[in-house]
Known about the structure:
Layout: E1 3-7, H1 12-28, E2 31-39, H2 44-64, E3 70-76, H3 78-88, E4 93-97, H4 111-118, E5 122-126, E6 136-140, H5 145-157, E7 163-170, H6 172-176, H7 180-199, E8 208-214, H8 217-228, E9 232-236, H9 242-246, H10 250-257, E10 262-266
Parallel strand pairs: 1-2, 1-4, 2-3, 4-5, 6-7, 6-9, 7-8, 9-10
Antiparallel strand pairs: 5-10
Helix pairs in contact: 3-4
Amino acid sequence: MQHIMVAHDLSPQADTALQRAVQLAHQHRARLTLLHVQEAQLPQTELEHNRTTAQQQLHEQLARLQAVAELVVIPGKPAHTLVAQQKARSVDLLVMGDHHQASPLHFSGTTLERVLQHSTAAVLLAVLPQAQPYRQALVPLDFSRCACNALHRTRALLANDARIHAVHVLEKAQIHGCSDDEQEWQAQLFDQLIADECAQMPAQGAPISHALLQGELHDCLAASIEQLQPQLLALGKHGRGEMADALLGSLARHFVENPPCDLLLTR
């Protein structure tokens, strides 16, 4: 974790994202970039006035947090500019605030949705008001590469004394078509997946526990979240198939629209 970028639109939700980005930059001794994108359609005089106002406000925020960051204020289309800057600056993690809409139905077409679709860096949606170091993370795994990448990125993000719990949900349709031996085989496959992924990680790091759950996917995850009270939920952000790859996977979209805690999304 060498370079963290936080997107700030001068909203209270972006202040929450900035606090988390500062905490993580300090934890990882990472470079921090604070990016504000101005709407480019404004007249030049108004653009200059807004630029000065934004710079002053963001400098005050950094001073309040006692943080050092490169402040970048540029005009452009927010989603396009965020993704372009993330790629040009070799950003490892892009931190954003919630989309602050009154209804989740308004999520479609937001800057957040467009960034999640196109960002090549991991994206952290920061919603918890107190940016304390993460102590507990939950990672649902479905044997896909992007879900396993979420597990790796989570372990790289957390301190060594935090904990990670990985779960795989054997859904009802699968259960009804499985014998006891087949369910046991599924459990062994999941055990082997965790062992294989852990073998690729450094020996030092947050310990990973895991469990095979049976039931409806969202119900099982809701129960796990209620039980564990994680501060971080990590997901692969692709579903299956070309259409799902172009958009957000249904599970990722559900939690982006209803984040129970901070949310990490990876390719």
